[in-house]
Amino acid sequence: MNKPQTVGEYLDGFSGAARVLLEELHTLARGAVPAADEVIKWGHPAWVHPSGTILFVVSGHAKHANFTFTPSTREAFDSELGDVETGKGTVKLPYGSPPPADLLRRMIAYRVREHEDDGVLWK
User: Fold this and answer.
1) Which CATH class is domain 7-118?
2) CB 72 within 8 A of CB 59
3) Contact assessment for residue 74 and residue 89, using Cβ atoms and an 8 Å cutoff
């Protein structure tokens, strides 16, 4: 498969439960930050603030999707993430399970504020 040039092309590379979850995450992200540009960065969908700073990235993998924020955003929600598997800035979302939509929306809002108010750039 060629490298995707658009988010739509990226989504077209998935099927089944992976496609369903990635489409849900795409819809959630578009609704949460409608002013952000959707671009492909490092082969994955990224949402970029009008200032040019990456806000977050979504990526599909063999058995899960990652929602990747800055480490500081992810850390701010440690107590709410509970048993959700995380990485340095990632939230791992297994296919076949509904995403924690409300939590992700709040994390997105935090990330936008973190950038706009505190000047936190990407990584």
Assistant:
1) alpha beta
2) no
3) yes
